[in-house]
Please model this.
Amino acid sequence: MRIREVISRKGDAVVTCQPGTTVGELLGLLAEHGIGAVVVSGDGRAVDGIVSERDVVRRLHERGAAVLTASVQEVMTAAVHTTSPDTEVAELAGAMTEGRFRHVPLVEDGALVGIVSIGDVVRSRIEALAAERDHLQAYIQQ
Ligand code: AMP
Model:
């Protein structure tokens, strides 16, 4: 199964923020949308970075509460692993495990077109394996 199919089911909404958004404002976005990461984009099209709850926790430990007034640009990861909607889910699962990140923005023709989380990937893999098992069971029982 390809990522495009995952997106067609769960939707293509992506929560983004400007590089100048403060970490305090970012926490509001994470809480409001019930998500773990936000894509940083100046124009809502290009991926400038990604900032996850893990970045905030690490910086809070290093810098204390003063980090809440810092901009997300200071705490984000700028070298973002993005992928195309045509990528196979199993391939992306391997990259996420290897890279130790739980979110991957989807980019097509240079523009942000969606995001997948490790939760989306695991759900899709479980569904695919269950379908394969049912198919094999039906074949054996024929
Ligand atoms: P996460 O597991 O997504 O909460 O992110 C863990 C760490 O990896 C954080 O430092 C994130 O900024 C970073 N990160 C998250 N997603 C990506 C990605 N797609 N590419 C590169 N780094 C990422």
